[in-house]
Design goal:
Number of helices: 14
Distance between the termini: 27 Å
Structural class: alpha/beta
CATH topology of the largest domain: Rossmann fold
Strand content: 15-25%
Number of domains: 2
Shape: globular
Oligomer: single chain
CATH architecture of the largest domain: 3-Layer(aba) Sandwich
Strand order of the largest sheet: 12-11-8-13-16-17-18-19
Number of strands: 19
CATH class of the largest domain: Alpha Beta
Bound molecules: cytidine-5'-monophosphate
């Protein structure tokens, strides 16, 4: 059986050059066994011929809101109800803005409003348009409402520039769609994971950071994904590739990480804080490079907010898992941290002695939860991550699914 056999995907195409890749996506979805119905905006038809998409999907392409013949065959409300998932790829800046404001002035925007199926978007646009505060605000609005924003990727752009704004490749979009049905103990759970270090600038060329490689957080993202969750990884600077099927948001500072986490935490069922967040940042950011002169120089630092503690204190907080790197008294310090931050679980490891930990390929942790613990001996981080993810799933299930069917997953 094909992996998407019988799944009904409504693919919306808005008007951007990346629309040519949507033809490949339609073919791949079709090959994976999905039923695909394509809805195009008027501008999209200038980029790719409806006949191409009709041939590849095996279904007529819909475009007009008030088309009596099409309405008779399958009306727009029927189409909205038909879909298991609505994916808009490419989603232009204009289309994202219209969705964020709830406009329903063409067939595709009307369908997005009328459908109760999960709505995903794959943005594609010029990098300046993507970075514009208006677009960023619209994207945030949509993700806070529960929409999935997949990408964009960074790279060469059709306009000749380089930067973020490329639509994700069809195979990656296929992976993400398949993720909605991946069976596992965390199926249907939205997970948010932080990873890597943060960089706290001092002046335009210097920063305070730490040796975190991000390997543990990235391995956890992959492991939680394998158990069926939909994963967003909020990552500080690392040299790692995002795991397949995981959405990655890149940040630099603790404050940026906090903003990205808090804008999503309310709609997540699971939060894992694996990032090594800088506890302090420079009180003042020098506008230009600080020159050497005096022989003794003091830098004033201020505390960064504790992202993990903030998430754990939210009224409807997700299942929260923290990390604790300790140099001594592992159990007392880690349990103290778990209790004071109000966490469901904490993964603690001894640092400074022996192998493993920061910047290494291997690690060993002890997981603590209310009334229990488990030692996971030294092993490579992907294997360790799979063990941790399985324990998280077990306790997540015990906390929500087994006792209360109204779990916060979503
Ligand atoms: O208190 P401590 O920094 O040891 O706690 C470590 C845990 O808290 C890790 O899970 C880390 O990701 C998280 N943390 C955070 N925000 C901070 C500091 C730590 O989310 N500012």
């Amino acid at each position: 059986m094909h992996r998407l056999e019988g799944r009904r995907i409504l693919l919306g195409i808005s008007g951007g050059i990346a629309a040519y890749k949507s033809a490949i996506l339609v073919r791949e979805l079709h090959r994976a066994g999905a039923q695909v119905r394509v809805v195009m905006t008027r501008a999209a038809r200038a980029f790719v011929a409806p006949l191409t998409l009709q041939t590849l999907s095996g279904n007529v392409v819909h475009s007009e809101l008030l088309d009596p013949t099409r309405e008779a065959a399958m009306g727009h409300i029927e189409l909205a109800r038909w879909a298991d998932v609505v994916l808009v790829a490419p989603a232009t800046a204009d289309f994202i803005a219209r969705l964020a404001h709830g406009l329903a002035d063409d067939l595709l925007s009307t369908l997005c409003l009328a459908s109760s199926a999960p709505l995903a978007m794959a943005p594609a646009m010029n990098r300046e348009m993507w970075r514009h505060p208006a677009t960023q605000q619209n994207v945030r609005t949509l993700s806070l409402r529960g929409g999935y924003v997949w990408g964009p990727a960074e790279g060469d752009q059709a306009c000749g520039e380089f930067g973020p704004g490329r639509m994700l490749e069809p195979d990656e979009l296929l992976e993400r769609i398949a993720g909605f049905w991946r069976q596992g103990p965390l199926s249907g759970v939205r997970a948010l994971i932080t990873a890597g270090p943060t960089r706290e600038p001092i002046d335009p060329v210097r920063y305070i950071s730490n040796r975190s490689s991000g390997k543990m957080g990235y391995a956890l993202a992959a492991a939680v994904r394998e158990l069926g969750a939909t994963v967003t990884l909020i990552s500080g600077p690392t040299s790692l590739m995002p795991p397949a099927g995981v959405e990655r948001i890149e940040v630099n500072t603790a404050l940026e990480m906090r903003e990205q986490v808090l804008s999503r935490a309310a709609v997540c069922g699971l939060f894992v804080a694996a990032a090594a967040v800088s506890d302090y940042r420079a009180e003042q950011l020098a506008g230009h490079k600080i020159k050497k002169g005096v022989s003794r120089w003091q830098l004033a630092l201020v505390r960064n907010p504790d992202i993990l503690a903030e998430v754990a204190a939210l009224p409807n907080h997700p299942f929260t898992v923290g990390f604790a790197a300790e140099t001594h008294d592992l159990e007392r310090n880690a349990e103290g941290k778990r209790r004071s931050k109000g966490l469901d679980m904490i993964a603690a490891n001894l640092v400074g002695k022996g192998p493993g930990g920061f910047d290494a390929d291997d690690n060993a942790v002890t997981l603590y939860w209310e009334g229990g613990k488990k030692d996971l001996s030294l092993r490579d981080k992907p294997s360790l991550a799979r063990e941790i993810a399985a324990l998280i799933a077990e306790h997540y299930d015990a906390k929500y699914t087994a006792q209360d069917p109204g779990s916060p997953s979503g």
